[in-house]
Amino acid sequence: MWDNLLILVNAPVFNVQLLLNGLSVGAVFALAAYGLALVWGVTSVKNLAQGDFVMMGGYLGYELSRHGVHPIAAIVPVALLMFAYGWLIYKLIIRRVIQLDLFTSLLATFGLAITMQQVLNLVFGPDVRTLKSGFGRFELFDGMVDITQIRVIAFGLCIVLAVAMVLFLRNSRMGQAIRATAQDPRAARVLGVNTDLVYALTFSINSAICGVAGVIIAMIWVIQPFYGIAYSVRAFVIVTAAGLGNFPAVILTSLGLGVIEQYSGFILGAQFQQATVVGLLLVILMWRQTLLRRHRLALQ
Amino acid sequence: MQQHFQGSTMARALVLGAAIGVATLAGTPSSARAEDTITLGSAISITGKYSQEGKNASDGYNFAVKAINDKGGVKIGGKTYKLAVKYYDDESTPSRTAQLLERIINQDGIKYILGPYGSGPTKAAAPVTEKYKIPMVESEGASRSLFTQGYRYMFAALSTSDQYLSPLIDLAAELAEKNGKKPGDLKIAMAFENDPFSLDVRAGVVETAKKYNMKIVVDDKMPRDLSDISATLTKIKALKPDVILFSGHTKGATTATRQMKEMGINAPIIGVTHCESAKLTSQFGAAAEGLLCPTQWAETLKYKDDVFGTAMDYNKAFLAAHSEYKNVPYQVAQGSAAVEIWADAFRRAQSLDPEKLRDALAATDMQTFYGNIKFSPEGNNIAKPMVLRQIQGGQYVVVAPTKYAADPVVYPRKAPQ
Question: For domain B163-295+386-404, which architecture applies?
């Protein structure tokens, strides 16, 4: 462990490598987390199938690329297909559990997760798949640091998407309706907002975002029908740590998480990468609890 | 979660029933001329998650049984016996394997066992055969832990999982000495998935590296759901090791190959397990060139025996008989080897007594098309090294052990462009 720390001190250039990798990893997490925060905030459904939507997007991209579509070009049709799929799932399942208690919606989305995994497994088989983007890599500092162009593109895409979402929510009429529904669905309904449409749209947007994340993940890592859970867990960690309804915080937390994972993997070893993240979440939650208690005491 | 599609109980019962029916049919010669047939018993995965591998193993068993019978069977005390195998479906569940073995031994009165598929079912089978003092030759359970229990009646044809990457360390030492370097100066960087199999592989590497006094500079364990190893690779990049090793099933092989290419990482020797199942050559082309991949058996090896001839002869004969296979998985070959080991033991023991057969098995010292067979007191095969193949020009070429190798190893590995 100390040896590894010494490397970073003696050859600071590797810090750049870790930062670059961490930011690009974090940007991908940001997409899934962003969608989760949106659905959670607006419909209060905690979508346990989040990671499986990501995998499904990846597989749609894989299927399109097998028919000669370049993975980057596949992003748009995948987003549209996933949007339609999200709409369907909303009409079939989510709409029925939205008013019910937390446990019902958890069970429903958990069941959805299992079904999606198994269907993907039946259709595409359990093999690990990847998508070839065909891009090269950038070398910096005489080849000491390098980053693949596809990661840079992925990072750019994630940021563009995130900014577009923020602008959409802030400025558009529909964005206002979504925010109003998130604040108080009943009041929104009284004031003429079609909340059912808002819910459907939110869920479908989330599904589309996950689809995009899936294609990007297939280009920089691998996809497999049962690997969705890793992205679900990460998305939940990020949203819990960042707090609901705070979208810039979700993005910052994702990027920070990506970087922390890289550092802990480098210094402590890959086996501690996720443990560090979960440990950190625990610390944040405890810290927040203490703050709340202090606040309460002050009020009393 | 991967087991959800094993089918309903009803379907299972049907399949099991059919399997028993088929098994009984296969066993009919024994009722016709019972005195002339030796029936071996096996509980193997016909349904469930190991059904494909179970089919490979039983195809290997059947192919060898037929070949040995075609050559006149086994002669014991002037009398000729044919071989037959009675199968039951263990549904890829270890507890079922144990139940079925009780049935094979108690109800069917079979005294000679062929192993199930996989380390789990084999672990469940061994205590049963041990209890009834019935010898078992297994060829599909590689876990090291099978051979630390002091089992007397279990013999394994294959190399244990701790030997998957350790020959690579031997090879590295050999090549270092040839190039005027001390093996003790070599630096090893490795990452293994955090599961029993991969940790077995790791244990073998650590032990061998210690023997040469090599330094392990990176020793990471990858969680199962980790799909990004760039942190580990950054470390590897900083430390410039002489040997890089990865073992993490298909995902580990895919991720490692892709990210090494992306980060421009190379070393004189790079070893990866599960190259073939990860389809590295077709997925990554040039980036997979020069990687060293371990396997239990390859058809280009120069092993041979009287039943099948050379490894290549076996390969041809099996493919001719089984058009559904494109190549011969090593699970098939080691299944056939297990039957050959049984036939050899019968010949040497000149008896049908399980105890005498156990002693004969323990004294086995033979060459088969699959490799040399000689058992340690613990029952694992110590005469057959793992085979290392290197990806050269998109093909898997055997490069070690050097004595049986078809081609020289490309060393040091060239960085892919």
Answer: 3-Layer(aba) Sandwich (3.40)
